[in-house]
Each structure stands twice: as C-alpha cells, then as structure tokens.
Amino acid sequence: MGSTDGFQYRALYPYRKEREEDIDLLPGDILVVSKGALQALGFKDGDEQTPNQIGWILGVNERTKQKGDFPGTYVEYVGPVKISVPSHRPRVQRPLPATPGASGCRLQEALEQGSPLPDLQEQFSPPEVAPPLLVKLVEAIEKKGLDSEMLYRTSGSELRQALRTDWTLGDLEPFDVHSLGEALRGYLQDLPSPVVPVSVHGDILRILQEIPQPENCRKQLLLALESPAVPLQNTLTLQFLLRHLGKVSQQAESNSLHPRALGEIFGPLLLRLPGASPELSPDFSVLFLEALLQTKELEPEQLPPALPPKPPKPKPSAASLANGNSMPLQDAEWYWGDISREEVNEKLRDTPDGTFLVRDASSKIQGEYTLTLRKGGNNKLIKIFHREGKYGFSEPLTFGSVVELITHYRHESLAQYNAKLDTRLLYPISKYQQDQVVKEDSVEAVGEQLKVYHQQYQDKSWEYDLLYEEYTRTSQELQMKRTAIEAFNETIKIFEEQCQTQEKCSKEYIERFRREGNEKEVQRILMNSEKLKSRITEIHDSKMKLEQDLKKQASENREIDKRMNSLKPDLMQLRKLRDQYLVWLTQKGARQKKINEWLGIKNETEDQYSMMDDEEELPHHEERTWYVGKINRLQAEEMLCGKRDGTFLIRESSQKGCYACSVVVDGDTKHCVIYKTATGYGFAEPYNLYASLKDLVLHYKHTSLVQHNDSLNVTLAHPVLSQPPAR
Predict the structure, then answer these.
(1) Is the torsion defined by CA of 66, 68, 74, 80 positive or negative?
(2) Which whole-number Å values give the CA distances from 538 to 486, 488, 501, 534, 550, in the listed order?
(3) Which of 383, 490, 553, 689 registers the highest number of CB atoms within 10 A of its CB?
C-alpha cells in the first residue's frame, strides 16, 4: 500500500447534498482531498489554503466515508496530509448506513410498547438536527409564542402526567405553551443519560472555576463540548436547544427568562453532576448554561455562506433572456439605488416569499449591491460582489452584469448558492408602481376612503372572531373527546379483566354444575358471560365511533385554523391602512367629531377613537406625568402597585434603544416593549408610526392594547404621576 500527498479541510456548516455527485456535511467533519485532484483542475500550490476560491472540491468525508463534491465556501483549510493508496482488492460486504428517520421508527416502536425514552443516539441520526420528539415540542412552543411570564415555570399539567407513561406525541395544537414547556422539561428529565455526557464534566468544572471572563469561558466550554468523547447526537441536540433558549432569552423583557433564569431551569437537566454535593451541583449546572447563553442571546442565527456556482441547468432560450440582460441596471424595475435598510424593510413588509429588490450596498463601494429577498416571513440580505467586470454572490464571479445575475435567479433556485434559500426571485418590488398610501388629495376624499377601509376591517374582524370562537369551542370539545377515549380505554381494561376473572372462575363452576346435572345454573353463568362480552363489544364500538368523530373534528379544526391564518395578512394590511389614514387626517387637523362620523361612531363614550371634549386638558400631554426614565421592572411594579386598571408609565427598556410601557391590567402590572424605528415609535410592526412617545401615548389613550396582545385589554387611561380628577 503506497501513499500520496493530500490536504485536510474541516466543515464549518451543515450541507445536505443536492446532486448525486455531492456529499453531506456536518460541522466538524474532516474532508480529505488529493493534491492531484486540485492540480487536475488547474490550481497551483498554495491555492488549497483558500477553499472558498476553489469552488466545488472533490474529496472524501472521513466520518461518512462518502466520496464526492462539497462546497469550498463551507469548509476551512486544516493542513497537508498523506493519503493511503490501497492496492486493488475486492470490496468486502459492509452494513448499509441507517436510513434518515429510521431511528425515529425504532423510537416510535419503543414508545408504543411503553418503554422509557432511549438514549439520544437511538432517537435520531444525521442529517436530522435533533430528536424528532424534541423538535416537535420546540416548534409547538415557538409557534405559541415565547413571551409568557409563566413559560417553563409551571408544573402538574395533564400533558406532562400523560407523558410519564407514554411519550408518543399526538396533536399538540390544543395544549397551551405552559403545558408544552413542562413537557419539554420532562423530556430532558426522562432521558436515561444527560445531554452533556459525564466524560466532559471534569473539563467543564475546571473551565468554570479557572476562567472568570465570560467570553473566554464560553469559548472554552464550546471547545470542551466538541471533544470526541461527546457523541455527535448529543452535540447536535445541545446546539438545537441553545438556539431555542437563545430565542427565549431575547424575549426576556416579556417573559423575564434571562440567561441566569434559564440556567436555573435547564442547567441541572442538561448537566447532571453525579457525586457532587447538593449545594455544589446545581450552581455549576446553572453557571454552565448561563455562560453559554450570555452572548448567545444577542447573536442572530448565522446563515451559511453562499454556495459556489455549479454548471447551470438548461435555462429559457437565449432570445428570451437577451432583452433582460441587455437592459441597463438603472432601468430595472427592481433596482432602487441608494435607499436605506429601513426603507427596504418597509417596502417588503407583509409580502410573500420570493419578493425581492436590489439596492446599492451600504459599503458604498462602486459596483457592490445588496439583494434583499423575502423568505420564511423574514428579509434575507445577500451581498452582490463585483470584480474585473464580473458579478456574483461568491467566488468565482461568473455573471457579466447584475441584470444577468438577477435574471438567472428568476428562473433558477437560490439553493444553488445557499441550501436554506430554496426559492427563486419571484416577485420584484417595482419602483414604477409605488404609490403613496394616502392617494386622495382632500380631507373629504381621505375620510370617505377611511370609511371604506374601516368597514372592510370590521367585516374581516367579524369573520375572524366567528372563526376564533368556533376554533376555541371545537378545541375544547376535542380535548373532552380525548379524555373520554382515555376513560373508554380504562373501562375496557376493567371489563376485560373482569371477563378473564369470570371465565377462570366459571369454568370450575360449570364443570361442577354439569356433574350435578344443574343445567339451569350452567346456562345462567354462560348468559352472564355473553352479556359481559357484549358489553365490552358495545364499549369498543362506542370508542371507535368517538375516535372517528375526533378525527373528523380535528380535521375540521385544522381547516378553521388555516382560514384564520389566511385572514391575518388581510386584517394586518387593512388595520395598517386604516391607522395611516387616521394619522393623516389628524395631522391635517380634521375634527374628531367628523372622524367619528366616517368611522360610524354614534356614542362617543363607547368607542376607542372618541376624544374628550377637553382633549387639550388631558394630563397625557405632560410627559412628566408618565415618563419616569431609567427604572427597572421591579421599581415600575412598586410604583403601580394598588393603582386602578389603565394606570401606566413609560420607562427606558433593558433592551438597548427601546422603551417599555408598564400598565395595570386586572389589578396586575404588565410590561411591553416600545420599539424606536426609522418610521417612528410603536409596539409592533406595522404600527411603529408615531413621531414621539407622546403621540403614541395619546393614541393609546383611546385605543386598546389588545390589538397587540390578547392579555392587554386596556387603554393608557391614567398617567401614574397625574393628579386624580376632583370629585
């Protein structure tokens, strides 16, 4: 067996192969590449150290033993290596790798048999990123929302009680976020071995004791967790949980789950320290998770870099593309020139996936541009590079112009560059079709259009409310039916045990009565046995009918949910239009009485838009009555303790660049963030359109906060430092 020169690379990002000739990657994988393979592509000595310049590289994944192409932008250079060249010999038989998802089947099988949770290595295998059970719970929690103050702090839910004996998760939609959070904690508690294995506990304790600087400590902990002693499934599960807990921590203003609080809840579940004293073990577990989350909470999830271009697939005819490619960039409808990121966000708000535009790069470097693409409900920013007359998202740059690049990806998926961007550039935001929101040029015309939008909004709201009521009712019925099915199961079990007992005992009596010739007693025993069996059959039939009803109603409930979700974008857009028309009319000096007429308001005291006759005398005009500056959450609660509903204050938020509103609702103090954006102040998009905090306070004096949070059915009625009206 001889050897040849080669190079090693380490994978930095996960990659799932898109073509037959590709290979899969996971972070940390070692790739081996032959020097001869690079030379055959025309690369010189030294080029191997910049894999992002090479493009697609042919090599072998040491972990999977796969041979094929991988993207150079997804790896880093490690160093030279000698590669063994095996002599020719017949291939020996070897077992096939586990089919992705097969571990899930084995897990499901074990759970259905009532077995406890297996180890993580048995629950899933790459390219899955975490155990399916855990992924399902986390997705359900994030869908319900992470801003609840009781998230991960409750116990005793029905779901958790059920999961103690059965980890087969059904439909999680009916359960609230508190039950789901408790189930997630229960899952980690029920794992036979902790997520962080015992083999690295010593290293972790040493790092926590010896390295006081938070950032250095975190880096060393991450290095320790990359040890070969940590199974890949454990590493992937921990990374998945850290991403989720990072999102939870970002909502700390609402849920109070700062890294320290999350460390106290999840640290002992992830890092179980055997043999340590009760006083020592929880503290180190808490410090461990807190250290990992300290900077994590401010870091957005990093997208992998762009993939190098592959040989193009067949495209539309050259004639159809020629016109587009010959067009000057300035004439392209999707090119907006030098506009800010905030303006781009405004233009792409509430648009479907695949919507895009191009602007000048914020670097102001000649020839560099930024493509902004709507994907997954968020804006993705992709830099367009330029060098020596060529354009592209990454090296090597292959397109002759920005127009050619954009035209190409209007027909081809961007997954060629980034596996997560599996969409084409579908819907350009055209600079030729942008009209101002308020198109009418007179107060009367704007008022009439406000009337139309308000009526449309009310109609849609009424439709949504009906669906919501139906959804709530059917969700409760579904839960009752599930409970009834469980009761049926218990009843069937009791009857079957009784039937077995009777058969066992009656056999002896039947033989005795037959010997005695007492056929009447024999018939009576047999008749009782048949009645019992008949009753069991009836219960089985009733249970089956209930299960069918449950399945049908669950399907109908999902349809209602879909219809509700389809109405939400319309409601948001109509509410935004209506509010912008209201702001325009207010700025133009329209009288409140006239605005109320357009809104169809008869009784001013009953409507959220009605104004006091002496509007100018409101204490809200004096900022000193409600703005209290830099105080924390607890101090705000002390100031508002015992105050009537609607009493409020505005303070600086712990979230940089933001403010917080603290308000009394149902005798309790609630907190919500006020964002300061390029378009103005507000509680959430698209309502960040108030020029000052004072304008926001005056608006929500008459408008309930319930439109932003279902639990905040209150207006900003009483500034905390204002004098009560004389009686």
Answers:
(1) positive
(2) 16, 11, 20, 6, 18
(3) 689
